Fold these 2 entries.
Entry 1:
Amino acid sequence: MKSVDSMTDAPDQKLLMEHSVPGRRGVRLPPLDVPEQPLPESSLLRDNLPLPELSQPEVVRYFTRLSQLNYSVDTHFYPLGSCTMKYNPKVNDQVASLPGMASIHPLAPEESSQGALKLMHRLQDYLSDISGMAATSLATMAGAQGELSGVLMIRAYHLERGQPQRRTMLIPDSAHGTNPASAAMGGFQVTSIPSDSHGNMDLTALKEVVNDDLAGIMLTVPSTLGLFENDIVEICDVVHRAGGLVYGDGANMNALLGQAKLGELGFDVMHINLHKTFSTPHGGGGPGSGPVCAGEWLAPYLPGPIVEDNGQEYQLTMPAKSIGKVSAFHGNFGVLVRAYAYIRALGGEGLRQVSEDAVLNANYLMAKLKDAYDLSYDRLCMHEVVLSASRQKKQGVRGLDIAKRLLDYGFHAPTMYFPLIVDEALMIEPTEAESKETLDAFIEAMLSIANEVAEDPDIVSHAPHTTPVSRLDEVRAARQPDLRWQPGR
Amino acid sequence: MYPDNRRYSREHEWVLIESDGRALVGITDYAQEQLGDVVFVELPEAGTQLDQSQKMGEVESVKAVSDLFTPLTGEVAEVNQALVDHPELINDDPHDKGWMVRLASVDATQLDSLLSASEYESFLAELG
Amino acid sequence: MAESPTFSPYTPNTPADREEMLRAIGVSSIQDLFGDIPQTFRTPSLSIPPPLSEMELQRELEALAAENHRAVQGPCFLGAGAYRQFIPAVVQAIASRGEFLTSYTPYQPEVSQGTLKAIYEFQTMTCQLFDMEVANAGMYDGATSLAEGALMACRVTRRYKVAYLDTLSPSYLQVLTTYTAAQDVQPYPVSADSAATLEPDTACLVVQHPNFFGYLEDLADLEQAARRAGALLVVSTDPIAAGMIRPPGSYGADIVTAEGQPLGIPMSFGGPYVGLFTCKSEYLRQLPGRIAGRTVDSQGQPAYVLTLQTREQHIRRERATSNICTAEALIGLMATVYLATLGKEGLREVAELCYHKAHYAASIIQDIPGYSLPLNGTFFREFVVQCPRPPAEINATLLKQGILGGLDVSDMIPNGVLLCVTEMNTRDDIDALAAALRELGR
């Protein structure tokens, strides 16, 4: 069941500072080639720099062995719902590393970085087209920053129209935590809207809460349940008629590429996660990029800078009524290059095929697993399926345990306990980049675990058994925080 | 199983009126079980004036945060300092050593609006 | 060799695979799976150019890259928040390993010990660099880290004004303004003099050190000023400077942030970078971002896990310390590898190389007729030169000679240019720059 041989070696228990030996060096620097200059007074200088001392081979081995303790897309099926863990094409990394891309200073004269600006301008256009919006800003460095920008744009829009009382943001109870967190950072009060028994937003509940204080609504489409809102047009309509605006969380765009444009459905502004839908690597928690796409009436408020084509050259400019800068420079260019390359490799038809295969694969998993596991909503899903382990809970095994047992089978677990409104939720998103053989192996593992729950529940509830470390004492980690190496420990 | 000499709120707090009229407040065994292992508790400062049902603090487990509400109007006289280093007392002994807040100048008429032990147990049974 | 027009090497599904799966699901075509989308909006057309083969893609990107050659070749004297510094080969070798590059946020710690232990090392080294007690796993960049630091100070002190020393980077100020505007937090500028008496309700004093112009500020004095006002001291610093300059933590700073890009990260036209964020341990519960902690597993083995997650958005939602989710983990890893490789002696040496070369450059440039150094104080690796002509003209000429000149700051200092010298600039580079400036000054 172990799928990576190196995992039989026990992990190195020492830290870099514990490997450190005085006098070892990891790299040589050239000698000073200018005359030595007078130093500042000693009170301004530091007397001790407590960093480790290691030779280069030690550094390489330490980090290489560390890497071997990870599951990753390159090594394992990684069906994390709403994360879109698809294959990260290597050519994208290659072109992003070209010196002409990787070594440009962000403040270099624009005449000397036209290639970079052209790439950004084209990417803006592609994302505007895909989202059905008028304009795009690439300045935001993650989805959450895209969300914050979006709500700040909505705020600016209402303030300019003399509507400062519009301080309420509506958010479905199934939403990702960044949505209410971003709304709060944007100075809004959050009102939660429940979902109905079909997994759609409760339209009646929505109509009851819209009033003159409404700034807008934040919607994920398809929702975090992997379901397309049947009443999406009416939801947008209700909000618009009440004077509010509709923000789209584009985390689940993998289901909609080339199938529908949020701008056409009635959304006013949205963000896209390049590190999800557009294949840029997750890196263990970033870098990401969360471009913001806006309809014409919101485009002037986009965060800046954006790239404009004045007919002769490409330039960085701030939109006329921009909410401001959200990064010191222009966004995560290295991530933008990868997304651009991905879009160029696929073309429009290729993007459409991504969503077709993503939705097909998820429905295939659902069809094969719905007998052994409870489905929260018995309808076709989109690119992800939410199972509930409530049946297994009655037999004493929880969703968490099933997730941990999957690790023994050589699969990364799906997303657990999200969305919050589903009991013992397991959110599974295969993506389009997995073969049917992999999907079948995963199905087999899930069915095998369902059997184990019935016949040998302990092996599930005490999983994982074959990973480099077993279940961790998270309570101790929170009660006795140990967040860094300390000397003399 | 829930002591008779106390009153209970629907937010799963218990109140014990002490001999000097002050009120001792904590969370119930049901609450600590729902929370899981408590890792941190945030309590109000001494001297804080609270109205009944006002939020007075937070209890955290590894994966959840719960608000604490005062079951009675009153002034915070002292808080259980032992919980700073030993939040697990709330799990181990929620009705005694895991006490959280001692209130002075309480509005004792509000006790009637709270549940008795048997009423609280029925309430729990309904929650299923 | 005709391929199906929709063949993608990134997607395994063949028509036969699709057929089989459709049968298992019980629908006849893939479009049946999109029935929930109202018909009027289905399958819109896209104006994306036709797909490129990998070879064509390489050619296309190489052509775009080639258009940027003047920004990339030749000596660089431009800093102002992004720096051309030495990147050891080890950094990219480790960062390109698929196990680091293509893994997700480590929510399943049993199979993410690589990422988690690397974060713990990152947190350790960030603290050691700035002499601080606690660090998070990194934020987007130096500017947003500073903005989050100011907001954190507001939460800790329950005050709503943020004082900033007027030598703060303009772009950092813009980001701070964006982040504080919607929360009714008011930033206001102070000078070195007016900092002595901060306004009441000031949550923190924000200082960039070395400042935007490259000069050190009087942190001892400014710390006193903050204390007098009951405010926190928030310092935005530079990690290379930390190799030789006394760290902000040693002055009692409450929150210290920095841009991590100089630590082995390519300039990459502005990102991705990583924001370093540290604070005193008493403020731990208000710290934004992810934190990795050390604990044990069920067998008693030491192991690492994301901890104190109740501060974060996925649990606390609208009451979270920040909305941040995806950050810059891989970039943090690169910085960690850089620091492990350079080490105690190496980082100090890099800092000293920068210092001496920058001071050499300053000394020969100020001897050129028409050029002077208008600012007083101690600088690290950046300094302002007042030129006899507009910097825009000077830089245009330098660019033709293949030299990237400093940042034009003539809107702040008449004919001022902000020059940066790092270990990557040779003596020949510096002498050539001086020669060019001399020519331009005639």
Note: Chain C has a mean pLDDT of 95.
Entry 2:
Amino acid sequence: MEIKKINITVNGKPCQVTGGKTILEACEEIGIKIPSLCYLKDVSHNASCAICVVEVKGAKTLVRSCINKVSEGMEVKTYSPLISQVRKTNLELILANHPKDCLICERNGNCELQSLAFTLGITETAFPKTKKVDKIDDTSLSLIRTPEKCILCGRCISVCSDVQTVNAIDFSGRGLRSRVSTYRDKGLGNVACTNCGQCALVCPTAAIVERDDSKSVINDIYNNDKYVIVQTAPAIRVGIGEAMGMEEGALVTGKMVAGLRKLGFDKIFDTQFTADLTIMEEGFELINRIKSGGTLPMVTSCSPGWIKFIEHFFPKSLDHLSTCKSPQQMFGAVAKTYYAEKLNIDPRKIVVVSIMPCTAKKFECKRPEMNSAFHYWKDKLSLSENDNFFDVDYVLTTRELARMFKQTGVDFSKLQEEEFDTPLGISTGAGVIFAASGGVMEAAVRTAYEVITGKPMDKIDLKAVRGFDGIKEAELDLNGTKLKVAVVHTLKNARTLLEQIEQGESPYAFIEVMTCPGGCLGGGGQSIPTTWEIRQKRADSIYKEDRLKPIRKSHENPAIKALYDEFLIEPLGHKSHELLHTGYVKRGVY
Amino acid sequence: MKISDLAKLNELKEKAAKKILPDKPYIAIGMGTCGIGRGAEVLFDCFERTINERNLDILLKKTGCFGYCSEEPLVNIYIPGHPLIIMHKISENDVIPIITGIVKGIMPYRNVLCRVEEWDFITGKFKFGEGLTDYPLWNEVPFFKWQKKIVLRNCGIIVPDDIEEYIAVGGYFPLYKVLHEMTPAAVVEEVKTSKLRGRGGAGFPTGQKWELMAKVKGDQKYIICNADEGDPGAFMNRNEIESDPFMLVEGMTIGAFAMGASKGVVYIRAEYPLAVRRLKEAIRQAKEYGLLGENILNSGFNFDIDIVEGAGAFVCGEETALIHSIEGKSGRPSPRPPYPAERGLYGKPTNINNVETWCNIPVVISKGGKWFTKTGTERSAGTKVFSLVGKVKNTGLIEMPLGSTLETIVFKIGEGTGSQKRVKAVQTGGPSGGCIPVEYLNTPVDYESLSSLGSIMGSGGMVVMDQDNCMVDVARYFTEFSNGESCGKCTPCREGLAQTLEILTRFTKGNANEADIHKLENLGKVIKNSALCGLGQTAPNPVLTTLRYFRDEYDHHMIEKKCEPGICQSLFSALCENSCPMHMNIPRYLQLLKEEKLEDAFESTLRDNPLPSTIGRICHFHCQMKCRRESIDAPVSQGDIHRYISDTIYREGKAQKIYDRIIREKLPLTHKRIAIIGSGPAGLTAAYYLVRLGHDVTIFESESEAGGILRWAIPKYRLPLEILKTEIQFIKDLGVHFVFNTTVGKDVTMETLENEFNTIILAVGAHKDIALSVNGNELEGVLSGMEFLKDVAKGNKPKIGKNVVVIGAGNVAIDAARTAQRYGAEVTVVYRRLKSDMPANKDEIKGAEIEGVNFLFLCNPKEILADTNDKVRGIELMKMASGDLDLSNRRKPVPTGESFIIACDTVIMAVGEEVEATFVRNFGIKLSSNGNIYSDHFTFVTSHPKVYAIGDAVTGPATAAEAMGIAKKAAEIIDFNLMNKRRFHKLFRGFDYSDEVPLKPEGGNRHYAVRRPFEERKGNFDEVNMGYSKEQAYAEASRCLRCDVRVTVNTEED
């Protein structure tokens, strides 16, 4: 479509802006920032807050600049005494029912409401509280909702319904009793919420946040009886820098390792190690399914939000899922078995902490079946059911890690880069790209191709599955066998492919699904804000890291080879089956 | 039976005409929801039973509603050859006489409201019959006289459940014309020509809306009828559907053809079960007759209608919310654009119109757009149906040509309040509309005029409010409604209305301050300007209009913490106390008396009112006008009781003990000197309180004695001199100095007072008779009422003759008449209005009548006639007729041109008094435009900071109690201004008495004091009202229902 410039008048001055844009976007283009609150580009056009109002000549009332488009000859005023009065009063009205405990709020300093109050010059509490305080929803293992802090902007609902098609939350109640709530107020933990955390990522305040486990982690670090090891997901190295005040998408692998060491973790490992391991297991599983006529398409199982989604909404299709655990869970299982044996440490003393860009991982690590190490040791150490322990003990998001760094005085900018510990810190470029949508597919192809064809791949970059298109497809030629694969991110797109599968019309052999927009680098546990521009920068850093890695294929990872040689014997072997594979639950929607 | 062509339609019409004009009698009962609520269903059963039992050949019909709610149940009686008779307020007792009459061929004669000889159904005319001219024609009845029934053309006459009756009166011919003779574009053009505008309230031109929709391309288009009527007090749409559902179905079918829609939805609230039932039946029948569904009227056009029942959310009347609701989503508006015409129901092009808009369509087609524009105004064509409710005599559903004035609606159709109470305001447009004060009722009702007053037409709710409505409470009520119905989506509406409600609630509790007014205005402006949908944008209208027109009521709540109409419960203890200008604690002294604590009872009244025995005799008894006991039998005679209490105390010599206590309680001397000019009720009251506060008070009085109007104008047969003297003596004993025979401005200057006193209070009253400009008023024998009374009070022999005419209707007129009568004259009181309009105390009028005073009502003096000596010889009186109600809810006296002469030798003019304030003006103090002294409404300060003005001097002639009430308030403020401390409450004390509420009304009917026999009154001034006996006083006191006692029940929501 041809982009046409149109003429409008803004604050008395004629100017040219791009046609088809909203007034807010058009004004941004000419350097005028209209304050807004509920509006979030690409996410929410709820038009509820009434902050971004402007005067348009001929309109009966003020006009919301976030939804009204510019038109030829339009005369707009973005500032006037009336506009100022309306914006200020509306914000004061919102603040009336919002707690003023900024000092003790986790979004202190990173709260859109707080900064808007500053921008608009709010200096007094103009109105008293009129709302009853709803109970905090702490039913979810991943997310905590504090309705009192909610300003009903609707972003979380938009993201949950439009981006993820989960609809776990919606508005309920009328008037002053309007609230964001779950089905029959059961709480996020008791409904079809996938724990993806995109709601927390877009929330302008602290109304929805991750469940904060950092205090328990610190306690364990300072407990001499515990051996606390940490694994970091690939997306953390491109996300944590932002949270520590560096530029968007900053690649900070070495600093992150150094910082974690400063925090006092006993070992700093990398989830990328088990990403490589996942490729081995999942790759062989795919080959196996193709060869033995197993259920196809096979769908990846790394993304716990996606797992819960399919369990809720497509329970009939669970056998399409790869039985591989996610890299995080593989890591936990390996750390508490292989690594414990290797170091001769009582597995019960090992505390595995994951740093993840993901809130759903908090739920994943507490799934009852995620205790393979316990079963591994049960007989050997004569453990009772009461001694049960999980493979992964804590999951911290990027944001929680940043908070820990800040609280413990880690000055990120001055840190010298350090290396991961061995052997569970050794990884390949294939492990790195797990952070981006298409990365698992690309990593898998790098290995599968060579395993099946027996020849090295000449061009290992699989560009067709990179980028942020909703549904990406590629056709692979494996020794004459044509294989159609697809990559999707967001659950909305996943739903499309799942519906295809259920209709029996899926042309694919293998599908990669990542829950969050852009993949894990855009995860619900990442730094706020996370926009498409920022996701792109993080992806750029990820692919840069991949290029810089000396080894870029999982099967070439020496530590993985050693793991198989010393412990697992072979992919899909007996130990793999016990420790690295899992099953799923049919949940249904209600 | 499917109707396929015009011939069949005509055939059916012919056949069905027999249903409208059958060859045997019929009885039709108005069975709208309102009629059923008033017993129509029971009535119908009763008719049915009787007819069956007697095996009579009388048809029985269930019609819709004729609109006259206050007269329900309505019953139409038809006997072939006679006019249709509409009967009102019919009960089961009337059934037998009516039926017996019909059997004999005799029309009923009782409870007949009107007759209908001919009825114009607009789409057809029917002639019932002529005769029975004793009954008014339907359009001669005030309620119908100014109406024009276009939408309601069939309502109440035809049977809503029978499509054949609808066809009989010309229904479905418009649809035939549209489908077979017109193109869709031509239909749109006709609607555009009609200038019909949306009747849902916003007034968007319907033709234009249809044109936009017709142009949009789409495989599937929808039309929707918005029947989600939800304003408090509005029931137009309900009745339109209940009484004539086919006009809606036909209107929608025509619209669907014009706009190319094949599906229609009626979104109607589930709270309208009868309307839903009748509409379903109408749709069923229309399909059966081939007038809806596939291939309508054999034209190839298909259209079907679904009914969706809404759960009753007000916001679902907003079109985008309504669409969401139909789709099964929660009813929350979404921003426009896109408009429904682009993307509406299920994302398809959609047109939404209100019920009434659709109902106009068949008429527009039948009679043509041009015809339609002949009714209404240039910009607002046609009629609008309103539901007229509230404090109005005739309530109901009325259909008015647009541009009719509110005055016509309220005073002509509604016939005013139907009581002595005055209309205060009209609320149009429900919670989205505004309150229009009575002064603006000459405003024409059209979209633009109403919005210029800050209100809106809305869907047509019209609530009339009278003096007993508190406008702050009205604003609070509507805001509470809007707040409760806000969907909660956008900030200004959700949060802003909640805050507005919070502030308004603060007003009703007396906790608001000046800043709150600004907050209300600010919130109103912000919500209006930035709410997402119509509900929010209009929700501040009730607040903004009441702030604009009734700011004084907000001030009362805020500054005085009073709610004059007695609505805001937190601001008063009982309604009698609240309406008493002196706020006497009436339930308290009644209870104290009941408990035989006579002295306490006296002390209680005395602390509230320095002249308890005097005022107990002459008060207007504002308290009685509000007494809740009236809802059972008659108000409690509060005044008679406090008169009894003080009279008894005086008689038994018990007063001094209490006086001494109060004198002992005087606060220490403040050495502040206060001059009060005038010793009338206001001056005495101010002095009484101020002297007790320790101030040095001097009253300057131009006469030789204190009391003002009490002493010089009220005849002794009403107020014995010794009672007044006793009470004034106590004020003297408290230490007030009186300087008599001293006229300020003459004997002593204002400047002197200004120098010698800290504060000056002007309490000069209003006692100068207003001269009536009539020829001959300078003749010998023409007296002023006040002068005449004063002359008598001074003991002089009055200069009256044998035949006295008194002009006027107030207390002065009656006092003058009864006084003259006591001197042996033949007295006639002349008044230009009706007896019921007389402002004098009813008791006094009655007394005058008993004593033989003649009254001539609806007469106005034209000329006073002179004899040869320039003495009065007679008076020529113009006969007046009672005209329309004016804004004061009284009928205007209109000269008839006919006059007559009565002989007399004396004419006493008593048409009112005015303030004589020359010396005040000379001193440089501002006067109001009406000649009264200007003083601030709440502080009583005049334009001179040291000078206060109180009483009639400020208000013009009012009652003694009102003057004293102002004086009491002023004393409090003056003391605070002088001492900078709140001390006034120290003058009062608590009393021990029971707070038990009588479980059932006690004390029997109202007790009347014994009046002196008529024969004993002649030629003397002995007191007429002899007061209560002990038994009477106690019994009367126990009639009090104790509404001051409140039980707080915690009714927290959830």
Note: Residues 304 and 360 of chain A are 6 Å apart (CA to CA).
